[in-house]
Amino acid sequence: MNRLEAKENFNHAIENEKAEFENFFLSKFFGLQFDYQEENCIVSLVSKDFMFNPQGSLHGGVIVFILDVSMGHLCKRHLGTAVTLEMNTQYLRPVGEGEIYCKSSFIKKGRKIIALKSDLFNEKGKLAATATATWLKAE
């Protein structure tokens, strides 16, 4: 594991985090980049070995984190703050080291309940995980 790289990411996050969307500590630590296209949120990053599980691929918890963040930021951008009520994730193939991205979209926008979908693509551009989730608009 490249501990120096993990330490650099940690220090960068401490120095640059803000308690706001796109700039919170974990987004800075993992190096998340955000892009919005119509009603999609695209979150990209470079996966690194300090994010991996002992089997040598991106940890499932990191994958779920990225999927969740992409949906939360999409909600914030178009509907305001919302919270995750439930999330179902399917892991389809491993994610190695390199550039990866996640793309979220709305399935249904209700008055209070929102259904979303997010897909994560590995360093080879292949679908590696997908999630659907139900969110509640914050009041």
UniProtKB/TrEMBL annotation:
InterPro entries: HotDog_dom_sf, PAAI_dom, Thioestr_dom
Pfam families: 4HBT
Statement: the UniProt record of this protein carries the keyword Electron transport: no
Tree of life domain: Bacteria
Domain Thioesterase: 55-128
Gene Ontology MF term list: acyl-CoA hydrolase activity
Leader sequence segment: none
UniProt keyword annotations, A-Z: Hydrolase
Gene3D superfamilies found in the cross-reference section: Hotdog Thioesterase
Protein name: PaaI family thioesterase
